[in-house]
Write a structure and sequence with these properties.
The complex is a heterotrimer.
Chain A lengths: L1 E2 L2 H5 L17 E10 L2 E11 L4 E5 L6 H8 L9 E9 L2 E2 L7 H7 E4 L10 H12 L5 H14 L3 H4 L12 H13 L5 E5 L7 H14 L4 E5 L3 H7 L2 E6 L2 E7 H6 L4 H7 L5
Chain B lengths: L1 H28 L10 H38 L2 H4 L3 H19 L3 H10 L3 H7 L10 H38 L7 H41 L2 H5 L4 E2 L14 E2 L2 H32 L2 H16 L2 H22 L9 H26 L2 H9 L4 H30 L2 H6 L17 H9 L8 H35 L1
Chain C lengths: L4 E2 L13 H44 L4 E10 L2 H4 L7 H6 L2 H13 L6 H8 L6 H11 L7 E7 L2 H7 L16 H12 L3 E5 L2 H4 L12 H32 L4 H13 L4 H15 L7 H26 L2 H9 L4 H29 L3 H5 L20 H9 L4 H32 L4
Antiparallel strand pairs in C: 2-3, 2-4
Helix pairs in contact in C: 1-18, 4-6, 10-13, 10-15, 10-17, 12-13, 13-15, 14-15, 15-18, 17-18
The chains are: A alpha/beta, B mainly alpha, C mainly alpha.
The complex binds adenosine-5'-triphosphate and magnesium ion (MG).
């Protein structure tokens, strides 16, 4: 049992890890990724490596392609008609767009948390148990209960809901719902968790809780988060990538990006001149 | 035709009033139209409406009331012994008087007086004028016919005078009110608004009319047949309504076999329509590409545009005989009209209904829920079965209930394909009958409005209306709540 | 804020930690389930499409012969002794003449039968429609100068002859149990080779009225009746429906009463149509005293039935007009009424029209309520006003569907084809209107 300390959250760079992303391939690596929505090109030749067991933040002005890239990583773009992806993205050096790879398995390994909390209209328990059930992760009922309990605990929701597991997940508060969704993603034991602006629908207190949670989860998971909040990126991430108009402009350790950006556009964005 | 002429005349007067009023308003403005409150045409409309509306409403009201008044005029002339006869006979006498009156109108008064005085054959006389009489009319018929003619003359002149007077009065009064300060537009718009409000109440009046008329006839029915014999009896055997007979005439009017038949056929229809309609809707909205959708959807909707008589005909000439022959081939007796025939064909009819309602419902489930499930690594079908459908469940239930209400009230398919025998059987290869079939069979042909054989149709209609209304209200409120939940 | 605890004692199982073979098998199973599910969907849609195809095929296969009718081309002598023995040329006499005898004489002559050969003449009579006289009478009434002349006339053949020509009678069946005798068959063949007997387009199907003989039965009365009804629906339901929609969308305050009206309208849209028939019977016929079988009554009943459809369509069309249009009109000083009638309504018109046509199409195919108000009637003459007795297209189909003769069976499906063509045309117009005027704001 380890209690996360606030200090470690504020001191984002405390994790003394790794050389810069891109220097070596990392958990996930993207090579020359282009994405098209019909005729429109949304991403242009993106190259990036995402290191294991750390948090990487994607920042950039609206419409620059952050979500699009995030959705490439677990192939959620497959569900959009007319969306085409070229280039190569690997997870542990396996090409995730390989036709032999099953997208269902990929998504079990790369989970996703969305901008708006989207609990299923089921009980809290069933929300969490949904993933393990479809993937056959639990051999018995006790197994399943163990997974649900552990996931809720990891998501920091256990104390609030332990007496109401049978109630509807949609009956929780917004912040609780988002943690429920995180717990739901954790429950299938993913290696990577993608979060698309997970706090944009939440108030500051709920946001703080999620941020604490992310910092905690980093010990077990590789996390990629899209955010519009510079402070949030600074607080939770170790690495940051800046997107602009469909291109990845600059990437590096968070401290370096925020303190000494090399690209003019990054500097302008961080100081609030574009966006 | 005169009524039409009168209406046309009133409208023409309205046109004239419009012209006079605009002239007058122009005069009042003293050449500067901005002195007036409203545009010229509103002054015209103001006066025209006052000229036309009261008069026209009177004509319409009188046109509706006149037949009833005339009927009572004739009735008052009939001798007591005729009135005690059966309703059909009275109606016959009634119509013969109408014919005689019509014939008299074609004679000049002197011709008529001469004919009546000289007792020449009226059959021949009127026959030569193109009015065919069956038998020589009796004295009371002649008297009634003359009375009828007097009254209808009176009515014709009376209504003409009064209506034209009313139009003149409206014209004069509204012209007096015509000043430059008159807020003509507001006045006209007030009348228009009243018209709009009136139109919106027609739907309510219709419902009220349905309930009241059926309730009244049903009460009549229950005066002849006690309610428990209707609601609780298992025997439907209305017999024929013998002419001239009053009282129950020995028929039995058990609702239960009809209710059973209705329910059974509707169930079969739903068993066919719900899975197919739902699956089709799911495939269309979750899997089909846009191209497929634009081609296939309208083709399926063709089914919805086909009148039910065509489905009934299909069951009668094709599906029923097919089932019967198929049954005969494997040694199972199937009657040509059966629960299965009617239910199956009705199911086909309901497929587009179920599928378009479910389509709406499924599309109302937010995409974020699907994303959440797919993002966890669920397949599409798992997402649909475990997330989308449970989320859409209330809406789907609403759709099924609406379909059930449709099935229960459906008439032509069962009339042609279900049979007429009021059986209570669980064998789907046997004929049963439904409430709607019996309403039709009790009301086609000659009607005897006092007999329970006719009145029972209204009791059945009220039962049908109550059941479907309950289903509709419940289903619509479920669907509405479902929509609001995801809006 | 420090209650975030992580239970490191338990790690959730992960898919990568499971036996790869088991995972592979499970995924294969799930893929199969996915495939099955999609197959169900495709099957459901295929079933629906097959039903559409089957329905149309059955109707067309059974109905197309109704559009052809066997006709005999005979040299008819308009014998004054038969038509007008008194020689006064008054209409009544001409009306009452025995025209069937003229037709019979012509066919005897054609076949070379002696008029006093009782057996042969009886058989020859069987080749003619019993309704042949009607057409001859019409001919003479139209032009009495024809009396005394001999002219080539196309006359309806008997239903059995028609059946032979359409291949519906099996010649292999023994004569005793065949509806047409060997001698008659021989004559038929003789007439066909002589070019005297052939199938022609059946105009009568569209022009004739009710008849107990299939050859002389047509849809004329039904088409006119249906037309009167549609006009009534148009004149009653559209103004009322649009007015109600305007009130509900633009003026009505959001209160209990409005809610009640709305619930009422949506429920009325789902009331079984037969109930509207009962309403018509109880109120329009029994209470107001309008005549039974009149297309006016049918039209009124259908109008009430269509009203909710029109209201709902009109409301949708009116809400689709963006508020900016209203504000613009109000902004330049128009009253609310003016902004609606001058600006909103014209823009909403295509939508209203589309909804109206679809409502009309529904009304045109409706049968059940019309049965209640006596539209099941044997009407021979065209109705001249909406108050005259008439029938309607779907009711005519219903009436014919209960008849057993082969001629009526094919006419039932033929009439259905006519009805479907009308409906398709209306729906097509609605679709075109929608495409043409569809506007994205
Ligand atoms: N489903 C889609 N179909 C077509 N174009 C899309 C679709 N989704 C995104 N786009 C386009 O792709 C581009 C990138 O969109 P994306 O959603 O990735 O931006 P983003 O960086 O996430 O913006 P935001 O910060 O507003 O979420 C945009 O120009 C957008 O219009
Ligand atoms: Mg985004």
């Amino acid at each position: 049992m380890v209690a996360a300390s606030d200090a470690s959250v504020l001191n984002g760079s405390g994790a003394k890890t790794l050389t810069g992303p891109g220097a070596h391939s990392g958990k996930i690596s993207a090579r020359d990724v282009n994405v098209f929505y019909g005729e429109n090109q949304a991403l242009k030749s993106v190259n990036v490596g995402i290191p294991e067991r750390s948090v990487m933040a994607f920042i950039g002005p609206s419409g620059c392609g952050k979500s699009t890239f995030l959705r490439c990583i677990n192939r959620m773009n497959d569900t959009i008609a007319g969306c085409r992806v070229t280039g190569k993205i690997t997870l542990d050096n396996e090409d995730i767009y390989d036709s032999k790879l099953d997208v269902v398995q990929l998504r079990a390994r790369v989970g996703m948390v969305f901008q708006k909390p989207n609990p299923f209209p089921k009980s809290i328990f069933d929300n969490i148990a949904y993933g393990p059930r479809i993937h056959g992760l639990a051999q018995s009922k006790t197994d399943l209960e163990g997974i649900v309990t552990a996931s809720l605990k990891k998501a920091g929701l256990w104390d609030e809901v332990k007496d109401r597991l049978k109630e509807q997940g949609t009956g929780l508060s917004g912040g609780q719902q988002q943690r429920l969704c995180i717990a739901r993603a954790i429950a299938v034991g993913p290696e990577v968790i993608l979060m698309d602006e997970p706090c944009s629908a939440l108030d500051p207190i709920a946001t703080a809780r999620i941020e604490e949670l992310i910092d905690d989860l980093r010990k077990n998971f590789t996390i990629v988060i899209v955010t519009h909040s510079m402070q949030q990126a600074a607080r939770v991430s170790q690495h940051t990538a800046f997107f602009h108009l469909g291109s990845l402009v600059e990437k590096g350790e968070t401290q370096q990006i925020f303190m000494a950006p090399t690209d003019k556009r990054t500097q302008d964005y961080i100081t609030g001149r574009i966006g | 035709m005169t009524r039409l002429l009168l209406s046309a005349l009133i409208l023409a007067l309205g046109g004239a009033a419009y012209g006079l009023a605009t002239d007058r308003a122009r005069q009042l403005s003293g050449g500067k139209l901005s002195n007036l409150h409203s545009r010229l045409s509103y002054y015209g409309f103001f006066v025209a409406l006052w000229t036309v509306l009261p008069a026209l409403l009177l004509v319409i009201a009188w046109s509706i009331a006149e037949p009833m008044v005339m009927h009572s005029v004739v009735q008052s002339q009939l001798p007591a012994d005729i009135l005690t006869k059966s309703k059909a006979e009275v109606a016959m006498v009634d119509s013969s008087i109408g014919t005689i009156a019509d014939g008299f109108q074609r004679l000049t008064p002197t011709e008529l007086a001469a004919a009546l005085a000289s007792k020449t054959s009226l059959v021949d006389l009127l026959g030569s004028k193109g009015v065919a009489l069956g038998t020589e009319p009796e004295a009371f018929q002649i008297a009634a016919a003359q009375q009828l003619n007097r009254w209808s003359d009176l009515s014709r002149y009376g209504i003409t005078t009064i209506a034209l007077g009313l139009a003149a009065l409206g014209f004069v009064l509204s012209m007096f009110r015509l000043t430059g300060k008159l807020r003509a537009r507001n006045a006209v718009e007030k009348i228009m608004l009243a018209g709009l409000v009136g139109a919106s109440t027609v739907a309510i009046l219709t419902t009220a009319g349905i309930v009241l008329s059926m309730l009244l006839e049903t009460i009549h029915f229950f005066q002849k047949v006690p309610p428990q014999d209707f609601f609780l009896s298992t025997v439907w055997d209305p017999r024929f309504s013998a002419a001239g007979s009053t009282g129950t005439a020995g028929g039995q009017f058990g609702l239960l076999p009809l209710l059973w038949g209705t329910t059974y056929i509707s169930l079969v229809a739903l068993v066919v329509a719900v899975p197919i309609g739902l699956l089709a809707a799911i495939y269309m909205s979750e899997y089909a590409s846009k191209r497929v959708r634009t081609v296939v959807k309208p083709m399926l909707e063709l089914l919805a545009g086909i009148p039910t008589i065509v489905y009934g005909l299909f069951a009668l000439i094709s599906f029923g005989p097919f089932l019967r022959d198929a049954g005969a081939a494997i040694g199972v007796p199937v009657s040509a009209s059966s629960v299965l025939t009617a239910g199956f064909v009705m199911g086909i009819m309901l497929i587009p209904f179920v599928s378009s309602l479910s389509d709406d419902v499924i599309n109302a489930v937010p995409q974020t829920l699907r994303d959440g499930s797919l993002g966890l690594g669920a397949t599409r079908s798992e997402t649909i079965k475990q997330v989308v459908l449970p989320a859409a469940l209330p809406g789907v239930i609403g759709a099924v209930l609406l379909a059930a209400s449709r099935a229960i009230g459906e008439t032509m398919i069962v009339v042609l394909a279900a049979g007429i025998a009021a059986n209570i059987t669980v064998n789907p290869l046997q004929p049963v009958t439904t409430m709607t079939v019996k309403i039709v069979s009790q009301l086609t042909g000659d009607l005897e409005f006092n007999s329970p054989q006719t009145l029972v149709a209204f009791a059945l209609g009220l039962t049908l209306f109550t059941i479907t209304l309950g289903l509709n209200i419940y289903a619509l409120s479920v669907v509405r709540r479902f929509r609001e939940h995801y809006e | 804020m420090t209650d975030v605890t992580v239970d490191t004692g338990y790690t959730s199982p992960s898919i990568s930690a499971l036996d790869p073979e088991a995972v592979r098998r499970r995924v294969a199973q799930r893929r199969a389930a996915e495939w099955r599910f999609q197959a169900y969907g495709v099957a459901a849609i295929t079933f629906g499409l097959l039903c559409v195809a089957l329905l149309f095929t059955v109707i067309v296969a059974k109905g197309w012969p109704a559009f052809l009718q066997s006709t005999l081309k005979l040299e008819v002598a308009f014998d004054p002794a038969v038509i007008d023995p008194a020689g006064k040329r008054v209409t009544d006499d001409i009306m009452a003449a025995d025209y069937q005898a003229l037709a019979a004489a012509a066919i005897y002559k054609q076949l070379g039968i002696a008029p006093d050969d009782a057996v042969a003449t009886a058989l020859a009579d069987g080749l003619l429609s019993t309704g042949a006289d009607v057409d001859l009478r019409k001919l003479v009434l139209a032009d009495p100068s024809i009396i005394g002349k001999t002219q080539s006339v196309y006359l309806l053949a008997n239903g059995n002859v028609d059946a032979v020509l359409k291949g519906a009678i099996d010649r292999a069946v023994p004569e005793a149990s065949r509806q047409i005798k060997d001698q008659q068959l021989a004559w038929v063949d003789q007439l066909v080779t002589g070019g005297r007997l052939s199938k022609a387009f059946n105009w009568g199907l569209f022009t004739r009225g009710a008849s107990s003989q299939p050859e002389t039965a047509g849809l004329g009365v039904a088409v006119i009746g249906s037309f009167f009804m549609m006009i009534t629906v148009l004149l009653v339901a559209v103004p009322l429906g649009v007015a109600a929609a305007i009130y509900l969308e633009e003026f009505a305050a959001k209160n209990r009463w409005t809610d009640f009206v709305e619930v009422n309208i949506s429920n009325l849209a789902a009331v079984p149509s037969i109930v509207f028939g009962l309403l018509g019977l109880a109120i329009l016929i029994n209470f107001v005293g309008l005549p039974r079988s009149a297309s006016l009554v049918g039209g009124l009943v259908l109008a009430l039935m269509t009203l909710p459809t029109v209201i709902i369509a009109a409301r949708a069309a009116i809400t689709a007009v963006p508020p900016s249009i209203r504000q613009a009109a109000l902004g330049i000083g128009a009253s609310k009424m003016q902004s609606i009638f001058h600006h909103v309504l014209p823009l909403a018109m295509p939508g209203i029209l589309t909804g109206t046509i679809i409502g009309l199409a529904k009304a045109l195919g409706e049968t059940a309520p019309l049965l209640m108000i006596g539209m099941v009637a044997f009407v021979v003459d065209y109705p001249r006003t909406p108050l005259d007795p008439a029938t309607a297209l779907p009711v005519q189909i219903y009436m014919w569907s209960t008849a057993q003769e082969r001629g009526f069976v094919e006419r039932t499906s033929g009439a259905t084809m006519v009805l479907l063509v009308f409906l398709l045309a209306m729906n097509l117009i609605a679709v075109i209107l929608r495409r043409r005027f569809e506007r994205k704001w």
